[in-house]
Design brief:
Farnesyl Diphosphate Synthase, 2 strands, two-stranded antiparallel sheet, 16 helices, mainly alpha
Length: about 400
């Protein structure tokens, strides 16, 4: 079939980038020439002067200093929710305490908001800190709901909301279906409460009222987009892998709230021009796709000691990834048989996984996914260097390299 308008070279419609809602026409995130930069060197720093490098370092220092304030706002807000909930009822206090236990981590999303804000000239810490903290609370909400959908009860090596609730209710004598219902209810309600808190945090910003209204609207649109992606991901389990569009799922489910919205929020706070906001939206989408493609690669070919990520769980779950889609499309009959026999088996062992990896390598699927990862990373770098101020472009180039290079 001929490539249609708005389709990527891989047959994926990426027009929902640049902040458009699903179904609306936006920018095309892969409409850039092939990467001509030297391997391993950020495009933003090609030909860079010592002053350029100094400016990037200065921005990085300001970002980290501001992140200290963001963390204080974040933890104070969550602590207040725990305290207020405990006054309402002990079970409400437990719910927020369980949620608070998984808040935090790398704080990638708040850092992107702070970076865009400072890199585009923002200077009011009290304006950006609550908005940045809101990104992390929203992320927590998405994790709680995603874990429920995936039937996971552990997060970052400790019980998540569902796991903590199960242990607490079981200790009280609840069993069977009633126990499962209690666990599901707690996870749904905890995620909903965290979403509400993310909106409340935005209202706590010292930004003008009109800006706060715009930020709330952006966050709501991002949540709607993420729900669309999550729904596609859930229903994909009912479809043959060849009928699933993993890149669209990644764009909607991962790129929107994890990269695009945090960057756009920073730009809106800084009063950036529309063209800069559009560029950051496209950069965020490209970053999100690179991130997800890398994550799927590491889920099969990574080093668990380095990544902390199993190389069996995605295969056992039959996760619908671009890597698997390409493997099924490119493998010969014998290779397809191997994939169909092993992928999706809950008892898959390392020997079976080794056979799957061999097919993904021999079919060219792994090389193709890594090429696409490099291409989306190049898109992010190129957009940054051609549209953004030098220090911000250089900083984001480093983010690209860190995200794509992790675990390899």
């Amino acid at each position: 079939m001929a490539q249609g308008a708005g389709e990527s070279p891989h047959g994926r419609d990426l027009r929902t980038s640049a902040g458009a809602h699903p179904g609306e026409s936006g920018g095309h995130v892969l409409d850039l020439p092939p990467d001509r930069t030297a391997p391993g060197r950020p495009a933003a720093l090609h030909g860079g002067t010592p002053d350029d490098l100094h400016d990037v370092a200065a921005l990085a220092h300001r970002v980290e200093a501001t992140m200290g304030h963001v963390e204080r706002v974040l933890h104070a807000a969550v602590a207040e929710r725990v305290a207020r909930a405990g006054v309402v009822s002990p079970v409400h206090g437990d719910l927020w305490a369980d949620t608070a236990a998984i808040v935090g981590g790398k704080l990638m999303r708040p850092r992107l908001t702070v970076t865009a804000y400072l890199g585009l000239g923002g200077a009011d810490v009290d304006a950006v800190a609550p908005v940045a903290a809101a990104q992390e609370v929203l992320h927590t909400a998405m994790l709680v709901h995603d874990d429920l959908l995936d039937h996971d009860e552990v997060r970052r090596g400790r019980p998540n909301v569902a796991g903590a609730t199960r242990a607490r209710r079981a200790a009280g004598g609840v069993r069977g279906r009633a126990l499962d219902d209690q666990v599901a209810a707690a996870a749904v309600l905890a995620g909903d409460a965290a979403i509400a808190e993310s909106f409340r945090l935005i209202t706590a910003s010292t930004a003008p009222a009109a800006t706060r209204v715009e930020l709330v609207s952006m966050l709501a649109a991002g949540i709607e987009t993420t729900v669309a992606g999550e729904l596609l991901d859930v229903t994909a389990e009912l479809l043959p892998p060849a009928d699933v569009d993993p890149l669209l799922v990644a764009e909607l489910k991962t790129a929107a709230y994890s990269f695009r919205i945090p960057l756009e929020c920073g730009a809106v706070l800084a009063g950036a021009r529309p063209e800069l906001r559009t560029a950051l939206a496209l950069i965020g989408t490209a970053l999100g796709l690179s991130y997800q493609l890398t994550d799927d690669d590491l889920g099969v070919f990574g080093d668990p000691q380095a990544t902390g990520k199993s190389v069996l769980s995605d295969l056992r779950a039959g996760k619908r990834t671009e890597l698997l889609r390409l493997g099924l499309a490119r493998a010969d009959a014998a290779g397809q048989t191997v994939l169909q026999r092993h992928v999706g088996r809950p008892d898959l062992d390392e020997d079976g996984a080794r056979e799957v990896r061999a097919v993904l390598v021999d079919s060219g699927a792994l090389d193709e996914v890594r090429a696409l990862t490099r291409r989306t990373a190049h898109v992010a770098r190129t957009l940054a260097t051609t549209t953004l101020p030098g220090p911000l472009a250089g900083y984001l180039a480093g983010v690209v390299d860190d995200l794509v290079g992790r675990g390899h």
